[in-house]
Bleomycin resistance protein (Deinococcus knuensis), 139 residues
Amino acid sequence: MTDNQSLMPVTEWAALVPELMVSDLPRSLDVYTRMFGFTLNYTRPGFAYLSLGRAQWMLEQAQPGKAWLTGPLEMPFGRGINFQIVHPELDALHERLLAEGYPLFAPLTTATYMEGDTPHTQRQVLVQDPDGYLLRFTD
């Protein structure tokens, strides 16, 4: 996948790190690093640990009979969940997605969400990764 010279070790572990089963780990790694801007921290066979700003992420090659699979994986993976990820360069991400023709689930918009009487406004763009996991990048 990569040589160890290009890896960035993790210096502090996040309190919550999603681990996503993927159908094609090399393809997912390409999209997460080249398109979405994640940094590859380390790998081992069938596994990769990535980060983006303060977000940390694990990808694992799905394998039949894997002990941690709770049911069959059917496209799109991750139904019923979206991951909100603060992106340190949201405009650059959006430009890269458009330039590469990467499909947007929802275009770059500004959204306001209420917390009681307090509005919280953020810009966001939504995409699905190669396996269909829904990612909501915000700034």
Observations:
- Residues 25-35 form the longest helix (11 residues).
